[in-house]
Structures are given as structure tokens and as C-alpha cells.
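seq:
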Amino acid sequence: MRNEPIGGKMAAQTTWKTGDIVASTRGKLLCGNTAREFSGIAIDSRSVSRNELFVPVKGETHDGHRFIEAVLDKGIRGLVVEAGNRGICRWKHWPPLMFPVLR
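struct:
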């Protein structure tokens, strides 16, 4: 089954695991724990929910990376960032070290 985006979120799946996401995307874990699980994946900062992985999308008008602080306040459990954002794990507003960040 393929998961298609629906209203800024990926279609339902039981859980998403950091390690599986890293392997599937050939990404890199910048900080955090590969065992962390997410209830969903969101690309829209306005509709992100607690315990989700936020993937900020860069569009013609907006760059989702600008909304990272706002989604942290909403209780997200993980974050995917562009390669140029490596220093984010040392950001002063950063959550506990178990919080996974991928690129």
C-alpha cells in the first residue's frame, strides 16, 4: 500500500519509525534516537499534531523551515530538515536529545 498525502498529512499507517524513515529515504540521522516512533507525518505546520514527524517543505512562497519553532511548541516528536540545517541540533530552543532530526 502506498501512502498518499491527504490535506498536508500522509495517509494513515500504524506507526512510523525513525530508523525505517532514514533507511527508506537514504537520509542521515543528525541527532536523536532511531527507535523513536511517530503517529504520522505532516508537511503543514498549521495542521501538525503531537507525536508527528514534521517535514518542512520549501515552496515558491513559503519555506516550512521558518515554522520549526512553532511546530516544536505543538509537541512534534521529530523533524526532517534540509542538509544546510545541520546546526539545528544545537539550537537553544531544542527539545531533549532523544528528539530525532533527519536530513
